[in-house]
Write a structure and sequence with these properties.
alpha+beta; four-stranded antiparallel sheet; 18 strands
Length: 444
């Protein structure tokens, strides 16, 4: 564990933000560091850093791929994680430097400490433990795939897995990019919402005008944006877009008090939506405005704003395709544009939702490994977030059994300031995977 935590700290110090506008060399440095960790295990036939095209003019961020062929009829397991991270956001919101790993109590703080450099290190440390136990002359096939742009939409992922199809082929795929029920209870994620994100520009005027002269008669873009965006939701905060679907989901217990505690509600704030809390987060659609480009308060003048641009992020319930969801969202916006406002939709990303087939032997082996490592039975959960590339894996490798695991817990605050990793969860996640590797090595 001390070595695993130290190695994780070195990864966290690399600000590997994969978004446009950030230094891509940091992502390359992160890939190089992950490659060095895999080479240091001494068990792979090959370890390489590779990129795939996004389209004819753009190339994706570097991913790390390590392979070891199976022998004597043993299965092959693919271990996935991503080494890129979200932007840190406002540094003033962090209690410590986001790229300086800091231990406070039983948690390690830093951007990527949980999502998902801990996933990278859980794989590395599990292989270390496995090799220390069984030696280097084992028959299990091993593939490690550490992606470099998951936080930016995995835009080259589909091309990457086609480009490396033979190397990535596996019987079992472990995606270490989810969370656990709590710090004492492991979870196997069996349902994931999809996502649709895009930029929406709302325009009403050819140029800005004096609000005192024309206000009250000329529709400014901010008014149009507020009116249009408000049509996304019903009075209770549930989504009001015709064509977005829901499904029946989990019967696990999770009340609004626990929601308020884990989501950090301010005093007096109430939950939104209807139905069980988990159905709202896992099995119903949601729409969030994650960014607005408009004049700042400091620069505000008495002006009618001609255009406003927002970033729309919609989560899609399992059972609906992202293409159908985008069509519903676009139709809704165009049908509700107020005052004849002009709409421009661009930078569209789509990711399909996913439901895990829990009938395969790998799910049983994975849950048993969790039980052994944690000392309590695993629960099957959904997740409100999206891992869109899983649908790409299923399309290219339809026979592979997929296990979505993770090293996070409800207080990890992935994507947020003060992201952290619970070190006890980290240790149990490593042990789970080491046990799973040993179980697959002994499997006929």
């Amino acid at each position: 564990m001390p070595v695993a935590i130290s190695d994780l700290g070195r990864l966290v110090r690399i600000p590997s933000v994969s978004w446009d506008g950030f230094d891509a060399e940091n992502v390359a440095s992160s890939a190089a560091a992950a490659k060095e960790l895999l080479e240091g295990l001494g068990v792979f036939d090959s370890v390489e850093v590779s990129r795939a095209p996004i389209d004819d003019s753009r190339t994706g961020q570097p991913a790390v791929l390590a392979t070891r062929r199976a022998k004597n009829g043993k299965p092959t397991i693919l271990l996935y994680a991503h080494h890129d991270v979200q932007p840190p956001g406002n540094a003033d919101d962090w209690e410590s430097d986001p790229f300086e790993p800091t231990v406070r109590g039983d948690r390690l703080y830093g951007r990527g400490a949980a999502d998902d450099k801990a996933g990278v290190m859980a794989h590395v440390a599990a292989i270390r433990a496995f090799v220390e136990t069984v030696g280097t002359d084992f028959d299990l096939g091993l593939v490690a795939f550490f992606e470099g742009e998951e936080e930016f939409g995995s835009r080259s992922f589909a091309n990457f897995i086609v480009q490396h199809r033979e190397q990535l082929a596996a019987d079992v795929i472990v995606v270490a990019d989810s969370d656990n029920w709590d710090i004492d209870t492991p979870a196997l994620t069996v349902g994931l919402r999809g996502n649709v994100t895009f930029k929406l520009k709302i325009s009403t005027l050819d140029h800005a005008s004096h609000s005192g002269m024309f206000g009250g008669a000329a529709p400014d873009a901010m008014l149009a944006a507020i009116r249009l965006l408000s049509t996304f939701w019903n009075e209770d905060g549930s989504v009001a877009v015709e064509g977005l679907t829901s499904r029946e989901g989990s019967d696990l217990e999770y009340d609004e008090h626990k929601l308020a505690e884990e989501a950090a509600f301010l005093d007096g704030v109430t939950a939104i939506g209807h139905g069980s809390v988990l159905s709202r987060m896992w099995d119903q659609p949601s729409v969030t405005i994650t960014g607005i480009d408009a004049p700042t308060v400091v620069n505000a003048s008495n002006t009618l704003v001609p255009s406003v641009t927002v970033k729309v992020s919609a989560r899609i319930a399992p059972g609906q395709s992202a293409d159908d969801a985008f069509t519903a969202l676009e139709s809704h916006l165009r049908a509700n544009a107020p005052f004849g406002a002009h709409l421009d939709i661009s930078d569209i990303d789509r990711g399909n939702p996913f439901l895990v087939d829990t009938s395969g032997w790998a799910v049983a082996e994975g849950k048993d490994a969790m039980h052994q490592a944690w000392g309590v039975a695993a629960v099957e959960t959904g997740i409100g977030g999206s891992i869109p590339f899983i649908s790409d894996l299923v399309e290219v490798f339809p026979q592979a059994q997929i296990l979505v695991t993770g090293v996070e817990d409800p207080d990890s605050r992935a994507h947020s300031p003060n992201e952290s990793l619970h070190l006890g969860v980290f240790q149990r996640a490593i042990l789970t995977e080491a046990v799973l590797l040993a179980k697959l090595e002994s499997r006929a």
